[in-house]
Structure formats: structure tokens, C-alpha cells
């Protein structure tokens, strides 16, 4: 067999086995799977505190003791010590309070705004993006950063950062 799936049977089956509370397109599930695999550094099928700590370290973030576990705690429905794909998609499809989102985005921006001047160094953001997604090529990273810094100033404002993260 050529490996093709003309009727989408494989993808529909994958979607069905996740038994999600919401209806998602195959494309959306694939997007979530790609995002999950970036965090599932060791391809274990779940994201645990060690994975969160590695991602934080790549972002030059320092998490206090047990902070990674706390971040995962509310999403870890089966209390396995990590989140699997179904739990991850559940998190990603849970409606977010706009005020909470704004606070999280500002906190994330401050992590990268090391000198507190209201901008992020484009090269630092690019370095993080490449660490986060090790399969990302230099050109792909340049394209991503180019979207956040279209004038090539080398600095990314908060508004440009939000547009970069939310792809708006």
C-alpha cells in the first residue's frame, strides 16, 4: 500500500480515539498534535514537568521548585504526573478569559523584555523559537521573526509580539 489515506479513515480514527468534548477539524487536531510534539521532547506521548522545565530553560526562564508541576496540575485530569494529547487539546479548547489572556501575554512579553524597555530583541526571540522547535530552519525562523518585525528594526513591540503569538 502506498501509505495514502484517500478517505481520511486514519485521521478520523485518530480524532475519534481522543474522545474530545468538542468537535474539531482534522486540520485543527493536526495543529494541536504538532504543538504537543514540540513540548513532548522525548516523544513519550505525554508532557511532564521535566519537559516544561526544558522549555522554560530554553526561554531563559527560571521556574521555582514544583512550578512546572503546578502548571500541569489542573490539566492532569488522570493524575498521571503529566498531560497526554487529549488533556492538551482539552486545555487548548477551553475558553479563556480575556483579562487572564492579557495578563499571560504581558507576563510572557516581560520574560523576553530583559531590560524592561518595552521591546524584545528580535534575535533573542528568534533564538528561542529555534530552541523551541529544533526542526525549524534558519530561513523559517527568519520568516517568523520577519512577521513580528516587518520593518526590520531588530526590536519587537508588545503589540507586534501579541500579533506574532496569536497570528492575527
Automatic annotation (TrEMBL):
<dbReference type="InterPro" id="IPR002048">
    <property type="entry name" value="EF_hand_dom"/>
</dbReference>
<dbReference type="GO" id="GO:0016460">
    <property type="term" value="C:myosin II complex"/>
</dbReference>
<keyword id="KW-0106">Calcium</keyword>
<protein>
    <recommendedName>
        <fullName>EF-hand domain-containing protein</fullName>
    </recommendedName>
</protein>
<keyword id="KW-0677">Repeat</keyword>
<dbReference type="InterPro" id="IPR018247">
    <property type="entry name" value="EF_Hand_1_Ca_BS"/>
</dbReference>
<dbReference type="InterPro" id="IPR050230">
    <property type="entry name" value="CALM/Myosin/TropC-like"/>
</dbReference>
<dbReference type="InterPro" id="IPR011992">
    <property type="entry name" value="EF-hand-dom_pair"/>
</dbReference>
<dbReference type="Pfam" id="PF13499">
    <property type="entry name" value="EF-hand_7"/>
</dbReference>
<feature type="domain" description="EF-hand">
    <location>
        <begin position="100"/>
        <end position="135"/>
    </location>
</feature>
<dbReference type="GO" id="GO:0005509">
    <property type="term" value="F:calcium ion binding"/>
</dbReference>
<feature type="domain" description="EF-hand">
    <location>
        <begin position="136"/>
        <end position="168"/>
    </location>
</feature>
Amino acid at each position: 500500500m502506498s501509505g495514502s489515506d484517500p478517505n481520511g479513515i486514519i485521521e478520523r480514527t485518530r480524532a475519534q480515539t481522543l474522545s474530545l468534548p468538542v468537535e474539531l477539524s482534522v486540520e485543527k487536531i493536526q495543529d494541536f498534535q504538532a504543538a504537543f510534539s514540540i513540548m513532548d521532547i522525548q516523544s513519550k506521548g505525554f508532557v511532564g514537568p521535566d519537559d516544561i522545565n526544558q522549555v522554560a530553560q530554553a526561554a531563559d526562564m527560571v521556574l521555582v521548585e514544583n512550578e512546572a508541576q503546578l502548571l500541569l496540575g489542573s490539566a492532569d485530569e488522570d493524575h498521571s504526573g503529566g498531560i497526554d494529547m487529549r488533556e492538551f487539546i482539552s486545555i487548548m479548547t477551553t475558553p479563556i478569559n480575556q483579562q487572564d489572556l492579557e495578563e499571560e501575554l504581558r507576563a510572557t512579553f516581560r520574560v523576553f523584555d530583559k531590560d524592561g524597555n518595552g521591546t524584545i530583541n528580535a534575535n533573542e526571540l528568534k533564538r528561542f523559537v529555534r530552541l523551541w522547535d529544533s526542526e525549524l530552519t534558519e530561513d523559517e525562523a527568519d520568516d517568523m521573526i520577519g512577521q513580528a518585525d516587518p520593518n526590520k528594526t531588530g526590536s519587537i513591540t508588545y503589540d507586534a509580539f501579541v500579533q506574532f503569538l496569536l497570528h492575527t
